[in-house]
Amino acid sequence: MKLLFLGDVMGRAGRAAVVERLAGLRADWGLDFVVVNGENASQGAGLTPEHAKVLLQAGADCLTLGDHAFDQKDMLSFIDSEPRIIRPLNFSKVAPGKGAKVFEATQGRRVLVTQALGQVFMKRPFDDPFSALETVLKTHTLGAAVQATIVDIHAEATSEKMAVGHWCDGMASLVVGTHTHVPTGDAMILAKGTAYLTDAGMCGDYDSVIGMEKLEPLRRFITGMAKGRFEPAEGPATLSGVYVETDDRTGRATKVRMIRVGGRLQEALP
After folding, report:
1. How many separate domains does the chain show?
2. Catalytic one among 51, 68, 140, 154?
3. Residue 268 lies in a domain
4. What pLDDT, in 10s, does the model give residues 144-187?
5. Which domain holds residue 59?
6. Global confidence as pTM
7. At what angle do helices 49-57 and 11-29 cross, to 10 degrees?
8. Does a structural domain hold residue 12?
């Protein structure tokens, strides 16, 4: 199976890049299933129902969220009516929506998508991501109950993301980090067949400070004082993420590579 995961969509520029490019990538690369992290798609903080529909109509099979899952209050009610949106497993025991779901890909193949939040350096405490993932992954056996499993670990610390990757090795087709908006160069296939990337980066304008217009972040770093709001940068956006090919029989990854298309960080296609 050919899988694509795109990192955090950042504001209008990120949405536009997905709309303009994803359908073409699906056709050109023969993609079977696409996951997009949309948690910063609406003004850089959360996801509105309207923008969720835009990303799904553009070709995403599933949207994951993150620690800003419900910054846009309409998502609290919308997520229960849209099964293609996944919030973090360990966000809150009373949060609406689901943290894991099995989807149907091409040729009737089944893909599990799940997401967990890290605990290290995060602004608020979340439940243990390892135990949250354990229940889901052991219930949906890779290569038996599902033909592929994608784990989005939305976390600040690279060490925590790596630990989750190694812990999930053999139980997932792909473990990919999100949240920091900076793509890492460590795409690999782990010992038991799980593809791994510490951070998928963002789909947004990289002439920025992690997707935000530079002036206000620079002012705060230099002076320690805020003058205005953070605003998403709106220059040419790069689609950043990871491409994976898997063996349908085992669910294990056979190929993995970083993807950067368009904007300022473009590189060769798979």
Report:
1. 1
2. 68
3. no
4. 999 999 999 999 999 999 999 999 999 999 999 999 999 999 99
5. 2-261
6. 0.96
7. 20
8. yes
